[in-house]
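In this supplementary section we document a worked example of the pipeline. Step one takes a protein sequence of length 95 as its only input; no multiple sequence alignment statistics are reported here. Step two produces a three-dimensional model, which step three serialises into structure tokens for compact storage. The input and output of this example are shown verbatim.
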Amino acid sequence: MHDYIKERTIRIGRCVVETRNTVRTIAKEFGVSKSTVHKDLTERLPEINPDLANQVKTILEYHKSVRHLRGGEATKIKYKKSRQKKSEPLVTVRM
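The serialised model returned by step three reads:
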């Protein structure tokens, strides 16, 4: 494994532990894909730093356990916004 991959993997792992951000957010921060972040955290990190990998695993399991709630909340917000747009008048009448 190349040194830059090891360094990125450790930085991503530390970032997850410090911020508890989701894989998607971390991927945006580091400019890599979600697949790369997930592979770094689940496959590469245990080989490099098992203690950090266990901390990250706990956080990822928590995110997985609440993802159905986050998805439901996102859908709720989406439809709430679309209902607000429908209730707004399309044409403003001035007298």
